[in-house]
Each structure stands twice: as structure tokens, then as C-alpha cells.
Design brief:
- The complex is a heterotrimer of chains A (about 325), B (about 300) and C (about 325).
- Chain A is of the alpha/beta class and about 325 residues long.
- Chain A has ten helices and 16 strands.
- In chain A, the strands form three sheets. Chain A has a seven-stranded mixed beta sheet, with helices on both faces. In chain A, strands 6, 7, 8, 9, 10, 11 and 16 form a seven-stranded mixed beta sheet that branches.
- Chain B is mostly helical.
- In chain B, about 75% of the residues lie in helices and about 0% in strands.
- A two-stranded antiparallel sheet of chain B has the order 1-2.
- Chain C has about 325 residues and is mainly α.
- In chain C, strands 1-2 form a two-stranded antiparallel sheet.
- In chain C, helix 2 packs parallel to helix 14, helix 4 packs antiparallel against helix 12 and helix 13 packs across helix 14.
- The two termini of chain C are about 20 Å apart.
- The chains are: A alpha/beta (about 325), B mainly alpha (about 300), C mainly alpha (about 325).
Chain lengths: ~325, ~300, ~325
């Protein structure tokens, strides 16, 4: 009897140790703040190509600046409380700076206050949280502006007339809703372009992007273009347009990665993308944050090598130049 | 007389009528609904979830459930897709299917050897397989350079899915394995007494679900030409919904592959119809929720 | 020693202690009272949901709509506050909304006798969809007005959510252990037919636990709105699976008849310790590692529970002999 119990305890112990072992991968930076400065980027969602590109920029910055730069975020999309949890976690870790791309700007307000009160410097990049204590925000364009840029390009290709659809990702995502607002806002400038309803939501699933677009093409056989504000949109719409044999008749502009659209751009199915290099954006942010910790503020009009001229406004918004990607220049981008 | 008395209403009839009614309304109000373009688009849309749902049907008939199907699809696509994008198309397809089977064996092992309730084993497997898939791929997109376009173009995804449905139906209805699946789902103890090995049958069923996840991975890659770890996270609930709409009992022992096919049809037509009639996306989810309950009530009425 | 196999919660206790010791040894700054409380507090809504789910799973049912119902109540709460309702009115409205969703689930499960997973799968879709509808086109969050600052200060600024979760847990424990309803729930869970023959009103029992769970989801919705400082349409997305995971880690049997609120709460604590420990390690993509560990922990804790039961049987046999 006792033997059996002892065996059981041994098994329990072994399992616990094994479990503890799970928590030990890459135990590289367990002492933040002591020997090396630590800057943590908290993105909206990890494990997708966009965040991956951001992470590469963060890793490059770590090498070049000689500081610890970490990159993390929730594992599922739109996870507001998961993101807060991660930020709380970094606060109790006592890192030097936290850079957030908030899933929701209001939700991070209290946690930013808390971090700043504990002497941790907080910044935002990629998506802003205005009306909080964040020190500055680094972006390639504002969320509404991206939407109107997409619509303007689309209107140009459509010759200023026809029917246009809109495809977004999830219905709850703030930045996507702002992109959609931008598209709708710009649409008002073109009286001869009509909106094709309903608005499509692909829930960040490529299959839904494709089938949604296929459905819209059936509902509006005279559709002239589609504005896609999240990354599965343009390739999904392109597949539906090819399947319907309408290449060239339906213009596609959107926000997406060049690597996902290279062939479609070259074949003329996708007309163009509005984007920036997420890696460079993150690299630049890490550099500006590191400078700030050394008491160097970002300066309006300063030119950064490989990135271009920055514009810095009074409310702490730093804008780096974005790019328009078409078939002519798509091969210059490797992300 | 004898014939009439013995005649039982086919279990799938109520939901089949529901599907037909939906199609009839759409076809009369929207002329494009039955166009070949639209049918092809719906077929492509139904493929991934449809193939997963066949495996799920067998799993649920044994009295189990598999929450890891979409994760298995993602991991097999990323493992195989890596090889395919490197030019080894045949090896990659093999690796895709093998990864699916291996994941299914992992589930089956936990359930039979570890004697774990299926919902717990596969929930654990969902976490493990999905995060492994994302970590394995490093969040990168796999491009397969049109190497599987044969599987993804035109009506091929629909045809493949229908073939899987037919094969699934034949296995479940006309083979010994199928009869044993129903037997252990109906009453595991009496099945055991009748000389059936529940462990072996369950192992086969979960491995089969894994194999179909691998096949669904190939078709999905064929359609999308790319794959990324989060691409199919909606598929798990989609597949379960299709099976339960199809009248398969979550308690096991009863249900059918044709029912699941109708279930897949209902959810596909709903999604497509919502766009055709211009239904605001905010209402679509509520309508889908209501449709599931209506289908379930129809099935409930039949049993009375 | 006997306690290891006689106490139902022993696997999850071992797990919590094990995680705590391992992290305390290997992770710097892990042991910091307020830090731990802060991190556990992030899981207060999960704990509240887990109490309801314990009752439901104990009755051999399941509810995967809790996350969506939480979201629906949050949005309703936010809309009411934004339209000028008082804190009390808005809170009552949110609680009412949660209870109504629970009653809908309960009606279809208990009265129409549909399968719980089918019913809650559809209310999961419907509640989320209607949350988007109430919020309005293209709205992803409704900032709380200044009149809600009391709630925000209380939920974000203090440990009130933990206290609330504790109260709910004690209530759930009392209900399960000390009331006739608790006995009915477990009787229905272990054998519905037998429960019916012994005169238990099975339908009323089932109906009431779905209503209770809906109410708790509404409560969690208010807490979430306060802690987030805003009502988010996607609030609670995916909570159902993590809350169910915590309940299962805690030792409640998925096939019903055996339920422990204490275990579920400890399950939530284990999940939050894991979150804190991995977070402090400073790993890239830590959420992915967290999910991986969560899967391993779930499987291991159920295996541990089986070991415990086997040991209990062996010991019982030894005593009989």
C-alpha cells in the first residue's frame, strides 16, 4: 500500500517538475532593468504575418541598440482583456518601457496611468490611445486616413463611377471600423460611386473573404471595385474575382501584405495596396523610445536613414511615410 | 399495410425540407442564386468545413467530440505546406495527411489509453496543436505556388467534398466498422459484451477524423494557395454546428452523414443568402443562431 | 497522505502549489503579494463564469454561450450608461439581460429538451450578433461616461472584483453543498432518469442553473466593463473555453454528477499563476506558450484525477479487507 502511494507521489512530483519545465523556454531576460534596459512591445495579436514583421523589426532594434527588446501580445484577435493582462504583467515585472498597439484605446487608459505612476514609460505605435498619458505615438498613417486613401485610389481606377463594396475583418475591431469610416467618408467625394451593400466581414478567415466576395459579385453583377481594409481581404477578393472571370472588371485596393498579393498584383487582379513596412515602423519606434529614455525627443522633419522624413505634431504623434504598392514596385518588398 | 406501418420518416426529412425551403425562397427572389458561378462559390465555401464535418459525425456518433479538428487542419497544412512550397508536392501531400493522422492518433491515445473524456482530451489537444502550429510556422504564411491548384479550382472542392460524404456514408452504413461505431455510441458496455473493442473503434474514428483534417488541409491550401496558422480558427464550431444541425445526437449512437451534409448545406446557404439579400452582417450571426435552434426543434418534433 | 486521494480537489491543489513553487524558484519577482493579486484579478470575470459553469457541468450540461452573454450585457450596460442611465439602473439592466439569456437557454434545454451544446451554440452566435446590433454599425466600443467612474475606480482601482468573485464562489459552494437544489443538480448530473424517479423536478433544476449562469455572465459583464473602462462589443470572446478549462482542471467531472466550486476557483488560480509566471519570464509570443502549457496542464490534471480515484479505490478495498 505504502509502496503504491510512494510511487504515486513520485509520479506527481515528476509531472510537476515536467510542468515547471514548460515554463522555461528561452529564459534569456529574466532580470529586466538590472543590467540592461528592457523595452516591451505589446501588439494586438501574435502569430500573424503582420505581427511577425513587426517582431523582426523589434529584434533588429535589439541588436542595433544593444538593449533588450521583447515582442508579445494576445494569441487571439480582438482580445482586449488578454492584452491588458499582458500589460499588467509587464508592469509587475518592472520593465523600462512598454509600447502598446492597443486593441481598444479606452481600455488601456487605466493601465497606462498605473504604469506611468510606477515610473514605466508608456508609448503607443501602430494604433493610438489618445486621451491617455502615453508619451508619444508612432504610426505610418492614421486609421481613418488609410481608409480614405484606399477609397481615393480605388475611385481613380474606377474612373470615378460605378458600384463599390467594402470588406472588413471582424465587426468589433476598432482600427478596422475606423478604416471603414475612412472609406465611407471618402466615398462622399464621389457622387457617381454607389455603395454595394451589405458590408462584408471576413472574420480574418481567408475562406470567408473569398466566399463573401463571391456572394457580393452575385448580388451586384455590376460591381466595379472593392475596398478591403484587412489583410485577408485583397487575396480573398482576388480569388473570387478570378473564379468569376471578372479580372480587371472589378478593381481591388486594400490594406494587405505584398507577399500575400504578389502574384495577384502582377496578374492585374489586385490593383494596389496601401501599406508601410511594419518591421521598419517597429524598428523606428524602438529607436525613438530608446532615444527618449536617453532624454532625446523626436524632432519634426528629421530624416531617418532607410525610412524617410518624420513628421511630429504637438499632440505627440510621429508619422513615418507610408507606401503605395502596385505591380511596378511590389518586388522591392520582402514582407 | 405492412409496408406503410413499417415505413418510418427518414430522420433527415425535416431539416432537408428546411434546406429546400430556404433554397426555394432564395431561388425565386434572387435569380443569381442558382447560377453556376454562385453554386461553385458555395461549393468552395462548404469544402473545408464539410470534409471536417464527416469525421466529426463519426466521432460524435461514438459519443465523443473533437474540438481539435481545425487545429489539426492548421498543423497538417503548415507541415505539409512547407514541403510543397519547397517543390516536393507529393511528399508534402503525404506529410499533410500523415500529420493529420498523427494528431488523430494523439487524441485517440489520450481517449483510449489515457481513458480521458473526449471533450477534455481534445480541448487539451486544441490548445497544444494550435499553439504548436503557430510556433512551428513562426506566424509565417506558407505559399504553395499553385502546386495544388488542381484541388482548389472550379467545382473540384465541391466534388471532393461530395466524394468524402459518399465514402463516409458508405463506411458508416454498409461496413462492419460503421455498425460498430453506432454500437459503441449506443451502449459501450453492451457493445463490449458483444465482442467489439471500443478502444480500437475509437482509435480508428479519431485517426479518421485526423486524416480528413489532413485532406481538408490539402483542399484549403488548393483553394487559398497560401496558408497561415489562424486561417481556419472558425472551422471547429462550424463543423460541430453542421453535425448537430444534421440531427446527430451529441449523446452518441444516432446520426448520419447525409444529415451532416444537409447541415453543411444549411449553414453555407445561410451565409451566401445573407449576402445575396443584402442582410446587414450584424444580423447574420443572430439569424444563424436562430436557424440552428429551428433545425434542432424540427428534429425534436420528428422524434415525438 | 490520505488527503491526497480522499480530497476531490487534491490534483488542482497540487497543481497550484507546484506551479507556485516552480515559478517562485525560477522566476525572479514572482513572489510579490500585490503583483500576484493584480494578476489574479485579471481573471475575476473568468472565476465568476466558472462558478456558473461548475453548476451546469455538474448537471451534465454545458454552456458555451457565457462569453457572448457577457459581451451582450457589457454592451447593454455601456449603451445605457452612455444614454444617461444611472449606474444602478444600467447594472440592473445588464444583470436582467444576462438572466434573460440564461432563461432562454434554460427554456430550450429544460422544456423543449434540446441538447445543451446545440442551444448554447446558437445563443453564442445570437448574443454576439445582437451585441453588435445594439452597439450600432461600426462601433467596437462604447466609452463609459464620467458617471461610471465609481465603478471603474472600484473594479480597476481596487481588489473589489476579487472580493466579488470570492462572494460568488462562496454562494456557489453553499448552493451546491448546502441546499436541496445543489443535491438535485448533482443527482440530475449523475443519473437523470433516477433523479426523475426519485421525485426531483429535473426541468426546474436545469432551468434554474442556466438562469443562474446567465445572471453571473451579466455580473461578469459589468465587472468587465468597469475593468476595461469601456464597453467592448468583443468582450468575453473566447472566455467560454478558458472558463470551461479552469472548471475541468478543478476536478468537476465533464459527465456530470461530481462538481466542486472550490476546485473551479483553484483552476482559475492555476491558470492565472501560469499566466503570471510565463509573463514574468519575458518570452516572445508568450501567449502561444501559455496556450501550449494550458493544454498540457488540462490533460495532466485529468490524468492526476484518475490516479487519485484509483488510489482511493485501492485504499477503500484495502480497508474492506
Amino acid at each position: 500500500m505504502i509502496k503504491k502511494l510512494t510511487t504515486m507521489c513520485a509520479v506527481l512530483l515528476a509531472l510537476i517538475v515536467a510542468l515547471g519545465g514548460c515554463g522555461k523556454p528561452e529564459e534569456k531576460s529574466s532580470k529586466p532593468g538590472k543590467d540592461k534596459r528592457t523595452i516591451v512591445f505589446v501588439f494586438k495579436l501574435v502569430g500573424i504575418p503582420y505581427s511577425n514583421a513587426c517582431r523582426k523589426g523589434a529584434e533588429q532594434a535589439a541588436k542595433d541598440l544593444g538593449v533588450n527588446v521583447e515582442f508579445t501580445g494576445p494569441a487571439k484577435g480582438g482580445d482586449v482583456s488578454g492584452q491588458i493582462r499582458i500589460i499588467e504583467n509587464q508592469i509587475s515585472r518592472g520593465v523600462d518601457a512598454i509600447v502598446i498597439s492597443p486593441n481598444d484605446p479606452n481600455s488601456v487608459k487605466p493601465v497606462i496611468e498605473k504604469a506611468m505612476a510606477k515610473g514605466i514609460k508608456v508609448f503607443t505605435w501602430d494604433s493610438d490611445a489618445p486621451d491617455t498619458q502615453r508619451i508619444f505615438y508612432v504610426a505610418a498613417a492614421d486609421d481613418v486616413g488609410i481608409g480614405s486613401d484606399i477609397m481615393d485610389q480605388l475611385a481613380k481606377d474606377m474612373g470615378g463611377k460605378g458600384k463599390v463594396g467594402i470588406m472588413s475583418g471582424s465587426q468589433g475591431a476598432l482600427n478596422l471600423n475606423q478604416h471603414v469610416d475612412g472609406v465611407l467618408e471618402a466615398l462622399k467625394k464621389y457622387p457617381d460611386i454607389k455603395l454595394a451593400k451589405p458590408l462584408l466581414y471576413n472574420n480574418d478567415q481567408p475562406q470567408l473573404a473569398q466566399s463573401g466576395m463571391a456572394g457580393l459579385l452575385q448580388a451586384h453583377p455590376d460591381l466595379g471595385g472593392i475596398a478591403c481594409v484587412s489583410s485577408p481581404g485583397p487575396p480573398g477578393a482576388a480569388r473570387a474575382v478570378i473564379a468569376a472571370g471578372k479580372t480587371g472588371k472589378v478593381k481591388i485596393w486594400g490594406l494587405s501584405l505584398p507577399s500575400e498579393n504578389r502574384q495577384y498584383l502582377k496578374d492585374g487582379v489586385v490593383n494596389g495596396l496601401i501599406l508601410w513596412d511594419p518591421g521598419k515602423l517597429t524598428y523606428l519606434t524602438a529607436k525613438l523610445v530608446n532615444d527618449y529614455l536617453d532624454d532625446i525627443q523626436p524632432v519634426d522633419g528629421s530624416v531617418i536613414e532607410d525610412i524617410g522624413k518624420l513628421s511630429v505634431s504637438d499632440d505627440g504623434v510621429v508619422i513615418m511615410p507610408g507606401v503605395v504598392i502596385t505591380k511596378e514596385n511590389v518586388d522591392e518588398f520582402d514582407f | 399495410m405492412e409496408v406503410i406501418r413499417k415505413y418510418k420518416m427518414p430522420r433527415e426529412l425535416p431539416i432537408l425540407l428546411f434546406l429546400i425551403a430556404m433554397c426555394a425562397v432564395l431561388a425565386t427572389t434572387k435569380s443569381t442564386f442558382l447560377s453556376s458561378d454562385n453554386l461553385r462559390a458555395m461549393g468552395t465555401d462548404a469544402a473545408g468545413i464539410g470534409i471536417l464535418a464527416v469525421g466529426m459525425t463519426a466521432v460524435i456518433i461514438t459519443g465523443g467530440i473533437d474540438l481539435s479538428v481545425a487545429a489539426m487542419l492548421a498543423l497538417s497544412a503548415l507541415v505539409g505546406g512547407g514541403l510543397i512550397s519547397g517543390g516536393q508536392t507529393a511528399a508534402g501531400c503525404g506529410a499533410t495527411l500523415a500529420t493529420g493522422v498523427a494528431c488523430g492518433a494523439f487524441n485517440g491515445g489520450l481517449i483510449t489509453l489515457g481513458r480521458m473524456p473526449p471533450i477534455i482530451a481534445t480541448l487539451g489537444a486544441l490548445y497544444i496543436i494550435q499553439s504548436t502550429a503557430t510556433l512551428y510556422s513562426g506566424g509565417q504564411v506558407v505559399y504553395i505556388d499553385n502546386r495544388l491548384s488542381l484541388l482548389g479550382g472550379g467545382f473540384v472542392p465541391l466534388v471532393v467534398t461530395l466524394m468524402v460524404f459518399v465514402a463516409g456514408h458508405v463506411v458508416m452504413r454498409f461496413t462492419r466498422l460503421g455498425r460498430h461505431v453506432y454500437a459503441i455510441g449506443g451502449n459501450e458496455e453492451s457493445a463490449r459484451l458483444a465482442g467489439i473493442s471500443p478502444a480500437r473503434i475509437k482509435m480508428a474514428v479519431y485517426m479518421g477524423a485526423g486524416l480528413l483534417a489532413g485532406l481538408a488541409a490539402l483542399v484549403t491550401m488548393g483553394i487559398n494557395n497560401t496558408f497561415q496558422a489562424n486561417d481556419v480558427s472558425d472551422y471547429m464550431l462550424g463543423a460541430i454546428a453542421a453535425v448537430v444541425i444534421g440531427g446527430t445526437s451529441i449523446m452518441g449512437g444516432e446520426g448520419s452523414v447525409p444529415g451532416t451534409m444537409i447541415g453543411v448545406g444549411i449553414s453555407t446557404v445561410l451565409r451566401n443568402g445573407a449576402i445575396l439579400v443584402g442582410l446587414d452582417a450584424r444580423w447574420t450571426q443572430a439569424v444563424i443562431g436562430a436557424a440552428i435552434v429551428i433545425a434542432a426543434i424540427a428534429d425534436r418534433l420528428r422524434r415525438r | 497522505m490520505r488527503l491526497l486521494y480522499t480530497v476531490k480537489e487534491s490534483p488542482v491543489i497540487v497543481l497550484c502549489v507546484g506551479l507556485f513553487v516552480c515559478f517562485a524558484l525560477w522566476v525572479p519577482n514572482f513572489v510579490d503579494g500585490f503583483g500576484i493579486l493584480d494578476d489574479v484579478k485579471q481573471y475575476a470575470s473568468y472565476a465568476i463564469l466558472a462558478v456558473g459553469l461548475t453548476l451546469i457541468i455538474g448537471s451534465a450540461g454545458i454552456d458555451i454561450s457565457v462569453g457572448s452573454v457577457l459581451g451582450f450585457s457589457t454592451v447593454l450596460f455601456g449603451c445605457a450608461m452612455a444614454r444617461g442611465a444611472g449606474l444602478l439602473q444600467a447594472s440592473l439592466l445588464a444583470l436582467f439581460a444576462g438572466t434573460v439569456w440564461g432563461a432562454i437557454n434554460g427554456f430550450f434545454v429544460a422544456k423543449i429538451k434540446l441538447q445543451p451544446i446545440v442551444v448554447t451554440l446558437s445563443s453564442m452566435a445570437a448574443a454576439r450578433g445582437l451585441a453588435y446590433v445594439i452597439a450600432g454599425q461600426g462601433i467596437s466600443s462604447i466609452p463609459l461616461p464620467a458617471s461610471a467612474s465609481g465603478l471603474v475606480n472600484m473594479t480597476y482601482g481596487s481588489y473589489a472584483p476579487l472580493l466579488l468573485a470570492l462572494i460568488v464562489a462562496v454562494g456557489g459552494w453553499l448552493l451546491l453543498a448546502k441546499t436541496p437544489l445543489g443535491r438535485y443538480i448533482l443527482a440530475v448530473g449523475s443519473n437523470e432518469e433516477a433523479a426523475r424517479f426519485s421525485g426531483i423536478d429535473v426541468a426546474a433544476t436545469k432551468y434554474s442553473i442556466y438562469v443562474i449562469t446567465g445572471f453571473l455572465a451579466g455580473l461578469a459583464g459589468i465587472v468587465t466593463a468597469g475593468m476595461m473602462n469601456t464597453a467592448i462589443t468583443d468582450a468575453g470572446l473566447g472566455y467560454e473555453f478558458e472558463a470551461i478549462t479552469a472548471v475541468l482542471i478543478g476536478g468537476t467531472s465533464i459527465s456530470g454528477g461530481e462538481a466542486t466550486v472550490l476546485g473551479s476557483i483553484l483552476g482559475v488560480v492555476a491558470v492565472s499563476l501560469l499566466n503570471r509566471g510565463l509573463g514574468l519570464l519575458g518570452i516572445n509570443d508568450l501567449e502561444l506558450w501559455r496556450m501550449l502549457c494550458l493544454g498540457v496542464i488540462l490533460i495532466v490534471s485529468v490524468l492526476l484525477d484518475q490516479l487519485r480515484k484509483r488510489a482511493a479505490r485501492i485504499s477503500a478495498r484495502a480497508q474492506a479487507a
